[in-house]
Amino acid sequence: MRVTVLVRPRDGILDPQGEAVRRSLAGLGYPASDVRAGKVFDLQVEAGDAESARRIAGEIAEKVLSNPLIEQYQVEVEA
Amino acid sequence: MRVGVISYPGACDDRDAARAVSLLGAEPVRLWHGDADLGGVDAVIIPGGFSYGDHLRPGALAALSPVMSAVREHAAAGRPVLGICNGFQVLTEARLLPGVLRPNASLKFVCHDVGLLVERGSPWLPGASAGDVLTIPIKHHDGCWFADQATLSEMEVNGQVLLRYADNPNGSVGSVACVTNEAGNVAALMPHPEHAVEHLIGSTDGRVLLQGLLDLAQAPAHRLTSV
């Protein structure tokens, strides 16, 4: 089953990468602010149904793909 | 006295760490990330470098390597572990130390000597007292230590902050440079004590922490923060 895990910096945590991108966008004159940089993981998860795929991917995201002290994650299972 | 120095694919300071251990009169034992045990060493150094190419997050993949199970047992038994640079990142990702190391606030790689203010006397810092300044080099991109305010306050009360930067080079919360676990037998810092062990290089202050590691390896395992 195709699963996507999105990992983002937690709200309120300084994100120097997003801030550097924001400054560059401002320099180019784009009307964009509050940039946050995260990561996308696409996984093939062997599971019988969408719910177990979500549970397995959630465990992977919690234990490996994100550090809960500074990051939050979101799991999306392809229909 | 036998001190294990763990090597990972991408480690680069393991040989300097082993050499520094020899200079202090102990026997370095080279360990590999795939090892299932620590070969009966008295103390462990997790050295600097870029384990597994720093993929995912610095230290995150090394924290899952086979040898870390043995390091966990060693630490749980109250035996000393010192993490240096990447080793600090590995120990936080393994949850053996509080907080996490993030990209420097400047997003720049920093490489220079830093002054480290001694927060308190500690078995990790033999001969040093509060207010002393140690000069030890840093060289890192991801050295911004972060913990929330509640965690940091608790650590300060427990005496888990050993060193602070005199001039914060990376944005670390509270200018914290060196921390221990609650029991006091696991310590780590971003600066490189193994690169500051000879006058020729400019400072021998790194010997303080390395001697602390050797001293702790000789002491019986107990709650070290209460010393």
Strand-helix topology:
The complex is a heterodimer of chains A (79) and B (227).
Chain A: E1 2-9, H1 16-27, E2 39-44, H2 50-65, E3 71-77
Antiparallel strand pairs in A: 1-2, 1-3
Chain B: E1 2-7, H1 14-23, E2 27-32, E3 43-46, H2 67-76, E4 81-84, H3 86-93, E5 100-102, E6 110-118, E7 133-140, E8 144-146, H4 149-158, E9 161-165, E10 176-180, E11 186-189, H5 206-218
Question: What keyword list fits this structure?
Answer:
heterodimer; A: 79 residues; alpha+beta; three-stranded antiparallel sheet; 2 helices; 35% helix; B: alpha/beta; nine-stranded mixed sheet; two-stranded antiparallel sheet
CA-CA gap between termini of chain B: 22 Å
Order of helices and strands of chain B: EHEEHEHEEEEHEEEH
User: How much beta of chain B, percentage-wise?
Assistant: 25-35%
What is the CA–CA distance across the termini of chain A?
Answer: 9 Å
Number of DSSP strand runs of chain B:
11
Decide which structural class fits the backbone of chain B: alpha/beta
Please, could you describe this protein's structure?
- Chain A has 79 residues and is of the alpha+beta class.
- Chain A has helices at 16-27, 50-65; strands spanning 2-9, 39-44, 71-77.
- Chain A has a three-stranded antiparallel sheet, covered by helices on one side.
- Chain B is α/β, with parallel strands linked by helices.
- Chain B has five helices and eleven strands, in the order βαββαβαββββαβββα.
- A nine-stranded mixed sheet of chain B has the order 2-1-3-4-11-10-9-6-7, with helices on both faces.
- In chain B, strand 3, helix 2 (67-76) and strand 4 (81-84) form a beta-alpha-beta unit.
- Chain B is globular, with a radius of gyration of 16 Å.
- The A-B interface holds A 13-14, 16-17, 20, 64-65, 67, 69-70 and B 56-57, 60, 64, 93, 99-100, 102-107, 146-148, 171.
